[in-house]
Amino acid sequence: MKSRTLLLVVILWAGVSHYASAQRISVGVNAAEAALLSPNLEIGIITGRQTTLHFDICYSNNPYNLSLRLLSAGSEFKCWISKSPLNRLYVGGRLQYSNYDYCRDDDRHYGDALILGPTVGYDFVLGKRWVLELSTGCGAAFRNERHTDVSTPAVTAYGISFVPVKLGISFIFIIA
Amino acid sequence: MKRFILIILFLSVAHLPSESQNIIYVTGTIYDKLTKKPVNVSNIEVEIYAYNTVAAALEQKQLMENSEFTEVVVSPDYTGVVDRNGYYMVNVASTGAILYKIGIGNDIILEEVNDRLTIDVYAIVENYLQAAVASADRLEIGALEPQSDIEGNYLYLMTPYSIPSNTAKSNVRLILQPILFYADTKDTIRYLKPQVIDGAEYSINLLRKMDFHPENDKLYRYVDKEHPLTSEKQTFVWSDSVYVEDPMRNYTVTGCFQFEDYSRILKYTEQPISSMRPRRPTRFLKIDVAPFVLNPDDYPESPKRERFTTEKEISILFDINKATFDMTDSITVKSLENLRKTLLDVIGEEGSKLKEFHIACVASPDGNYEKNVSLAGRRMDNAILAIRSYLPKKTGESVYWVSSSRVAGWEEVAVLLEKDGKDHEAAVIRDIVSQYPKDQTIQSRKIRNLPEYRSVIVDYLPGLRSVRYSYTQEIYRNPTGEEILRKYQNDPGFRNGDKRLTTYEYWKLFQMVEDPAELDSLYRMANRVHMEITGKPWIIPSNALAASAIRRGEVDTTLLAPFVNYTVSNTDVRIKRSFGDEIINPEPVVANQMIMYLNARNFMQASRLSRILKDSDTNAVLKSYAMALGGYYKGGKTPEEMAEAQKVFHTIEKTSPFNKVVINLAMRLKTNDKIAEKTMPECEAAAETTYEKALIQYLWAIIYQRKFMSRNDILSDMERQERLIECFKIDPSFIEIAESDGYIDHDIFQAARDMYLIQR
User: Fold this and answer.
1) How far is A14 from chain B (nearest CA, A)?
2) Are residue B364 and residue B392 in the same domain, yes or no?
3) Which of the four pLDDT bands, split at 50, 70 and 90, describes residue B16?
4) Looking at the predicted structure, is the pLDDT value of residue B612 above 70?
């Protein structure tokens, strides 16, 4: 776990630091995740005339008394149809790593998942530096999961599932 | 106690009748009530009438509101003046009222002054807006009724243009790039200031792309920040004032409309956005100012020694291989005889002395070089001796004799050959010269052996042989005026310029000769002589020639240009010199030059001179002409400017009936149109020439055009055409004027021209 976390941080840091120098940067919060009591943060970097790269992290710990712990980190590459980043329609692709631990009625699922899939979204210009983004996406999740319940010992399973990749109602602020 | 109360009562009442009506200066701005922006007076007619009592204003307002097509006689106590930006000023009693009539069909606004010095007015100008919106229903981008005026050297352009719905969007930028052309030749003159309109979304996104520094956008300074682009139907106004070198030419402006997003051009179109028929309000203003004369006593000349040098070529042949003249050659004999006569004339002239004589020859390069040099030198020495013998011995001894000679190089022959296209022969000669650069004798020998020598080269040698002489004479004379005049009248040599007079003699003659044509000829000769002696033109004849040109209606601004010093901002500035006072910027010279520039329609230069010319009664009219032709007879941004404009206007009004009509029509206000109409009978009585008679009909056509625009009646419609036809009949040159004059309706012009051609 520790080594995975460390690896995650290294990847994120490497990605951000490569592009962060002298680029326009935005920060955002996904209101949908926040509504689920899951603090999250997204950092976006404008990488070209019509492309941006975003990194986000979200942590959820037993929201609304649900037995759920979730740590996810992802990156998303967006291509803006309007040729102006953070404005109007985009299509993109998302890569996300999640570590989860979910328990319901003694039925516990915990493990890691790597999720990959396309996304699409629309940005509304609220002001010079403010943007409201609505986004969604779905894709495939490659799971390495352990499943256990009261009666059976833990079983490790690998699998691929079709999952929603993203559901976002994000407020984004352009810093520079 | 009672007495005390009575006194108090008396004092409180006594001041009432003694409250006088002060006439105050009221200013303000007329705003469009809907848009809260100042009305553009170029689009909409504004009339301002001031009355010293509220009752009089109310009565007039009722009259005006109740009239339909009948003319209302407006008799205000004062009339206001309003500029393009809706800023007005008017005199009125502090207890009076002001009526504002804005546009056609709108309510008349009455404002009681009540001691206010500033009264801003908010008027509904819906009627005008509705008309614009109705005509803006287009499928394509296009200009709506472009307007252009030429005043002074400036072309004022104002064009509303419409963008149909769904042409633009909020994430799009519109760039309008106007280009100025000559209307006749279609040559591009220059690009004008662009107009940029951004959609709201485009504006924000561009700001982000520019790292939130809007000045990084190169077009930022041209962006219209108040009116964003939308997908709705919109009307924008483009306006500019452009300096034009020649205000009498016609100009046209094409607008390049480009819609673009962040990376590509979405739509591009070119449309004309100016009127090809500009208005020239002061075109017919006649500058009736007599030229100014210099007092010769301010520029006295005194007798002095003057030196003249004359240089000529002479055709002389020498005996072959000898230094003596070939007296068998008739041309040589004649040339020497002419030279002898010339020198004897010089020494025989009164007060004249021969000071120097130079003679120089060039020999051709054929033959032995040293021998040629020696022979040429001996020939020149011999020539000096011979020429010296023509003069009395004593005279010859006081002359400085100089002779010189040289032998031409073969390179010079090559140059002559090349000029005639004989490059091969020239190349051969150059080749030989380069082989033997230091020995011309060997060069000659080698060239003589060329096969081309006899057939081609030898014909070019005589062209190098030449003899030139020059002599310097000094003249000093101090005759009386009568003596000068007698000499001038009796000797044709002085009258036709063959013989010279001194500048003192010319100066005297200027004051004695009376015939204008002869005087002009004398001035020109005198100027030429002065240039030779001093290297500068002479102010007295230059000014006199300029005055003469002004009287003839001709323009020559080069005559007086050397005498105007723009670095000195005043006239008649006297500077003490060793020889006396030097006058910088003499007032008559500056005034004449200003008249020349006005006649040349160069208002920029005329206005520069206007700043130098000091204010005086004699100059007031001239300065007013300059201001009026530059467009400064109306408007103004400050009360001082507006007062100055009014002063110019009234000064021009007083110059002549024609000018009164022209300047009133130039105001484009109904009140002034009526004044112009009332003045027309005076013009008709004063008209003498064909041009003036035709101009009267032309001005009537403009007046009836204005009446038709305001009343839309058949009588005015018919009259404007009839008057134009009559004008063309009297002077057909007005056809060309009317064709490009924005004051005349184009359809009416065409109909009148066609009718004239049929009736001719």
Assistant:
1) 25
2) yes
3) very low
4) yes
Asked if A87 and B171 come within 8 Å (Cβ–Cβ), the reply is yes
Same-domain pairing of B311 and B454 = yes
Question: Domain coordinates of chain A in residue numbers?
Answer: 2-174
Diameter of chain B by CA atoms?
144
Average pLDDT, chain B: 86
Window 463-522 of B: residues touching A by CB (8 A cutoff) are none
Q: What is the pLDDT of residue A23?
A: 67
Judgement on whether residues B232 and B315 belong to the same structural domain of the protein: no
Domain presence at residue B285: no
Number of A to B CB contacts under 8 A, please give it: 35
- Chain B partners within 8 Å of A128 (Cβ): 204, 207-208, 212
User: Residue B325 is part of which domain span?
Assistant: 306-475
In a domain? residue B633? no
Residue B344 located in a structural domain: yes
Q: Hey, are the CB atoms on B262 and A88 less than 8 Å from each other? A: no
Burial state string for B260-294 with b = 16 or more CB within 10 A and e = fewer than 16: ebbeeeeeeeebebbbbbbbbbbbbbebebebbeb
| Least confident residue range of A13-17, B303-307, B635-639, B731-735 | A13-17
For chain B, percent of residues with pLDDT exceeding 70: 93
Residue A6 has pLDDT above 60, yes or no: no
pLDDT at residue B26 greater than cutoff 80: yes
CATH of domain A2-174: 2.40.160
Token reading at A107 = 């039925």
Question: Best interface-test mutation with B: which of A49, A50, A79, A125 has the largest number of B CBs within 10 A?
Answer: A125
pLDDT higher than 70, residue B4: no
Last residue of a domain, one of B272, B292, B325: B272
B142 with B115, same domain? Answer: no
- Least CB–CB distance from A49: residue in B204, B212, B263: B263
Compute the average pLDDT of residues B733-740. Answer: 92
Buried b (16+ CB within 10 A) or exposed e, B711-750: eeeeebbebbbbbbbbbbebbeebbebbebbbbbbeebbe
Q: Give the pLDDT band of residue B217 (cuts 50, 70, 90).
A: very high
Look at residue B73 and tell me if it is in a domain.
Answer: yes
Contact across the interface for A83 and B201, Cβ inside 8 Å? no
- Determine the distance in angstroms separating the CA of B235 from the nearest CA of chain A, rounded to an integer: 26
Do residue B221 and residue B96 come from a single domain?
no
Give the per-residue pLDDT at B127: 45
Residue B372 shares a structural domain with residue B244: no
Q: Does B424 touch chain A (CB under 8 A)?
A: no
Instruction: Give the H or E element holding residue B588.
Output: helix B587-599
CATH code (residue B251): 2.60.40.10
What per-residue confidence (pLDDT) applies to B400?
92
Six-digit token string for B440: 């011309």
Q: Model confidence at B41, in pLDDT bands (50, 70, 90)?
A: low
Record the tokens describing residue B360, joined without a space: 């120089």
- Do strands B573-577 and B108-112 pair parallel, antiparallel, or not at all (unpaired)? unpaired
Region B341-346: mean pLDDT is 89
Identify the residue among A45, A79, A82, A84 best suited for mutation to test binding to B, counting B beta carbons within 10 A and taking the highest.
A84
Same domain, B143 and B199: yes
Contact A139, A115 (CB under 8 A): yes
Distance from the Cα of A75 to chain B's closest Cα (Å) equals 23
CATH of the domain at B62: 2.60.40.1120
Write the secondary structure of B95-119 as one string of H (helix), E (strand) and C (coil): CCEEEEEECCCCCEEEEECCCCCEC
* Last residue of one domain, picked from the residues B475, B506, B531: B475
Domains held by chain B: number: 3
Identify which of B201, B211, B263 has the shortest CB distance to residue A125. B201
Distance (Å, whole) CA B669 – CA B706:
10
User: What is the ipTM, given to two decimal places?
Assistant: 0.82
Q: Residue B135: its pLDDT value, please?
A: 43
Same domain, B140 and B229: yes
Instruction: Report the C-alpha gap between B489 and B492 in whole angstroms.
Output: 7
Query: What CA–CA distance (Å, rounded) separates B157 from B137?
Result: 23
